Amino acid sequence: MTGTKGQDQAKQLREKMEVYQENKNAEQTIHSMPSRSRVHKKRTKSKNRKFKLSFPLIRLLLVLFLALTVAAITYPYWNR
Q: Mean pLDDT, the chain, as a whole number?
């Protein structure tokens, strides 16, 4: 009887150790990941660059649109 009880106890201990190792590995993967602020900081840097590059183009298009609008409104008065 003691032989079967010892085998059962070893099996339970092995299962507990497997669960412990899985939990330990999960904690290590969580700690090896970058912090949330670092991830989002990279994302905002790339968004800011796109906005800064496209802003002069938008400004140029707005100025051209306004110039064409003013020219179209004042065109009838050019021949007088």
A: 77
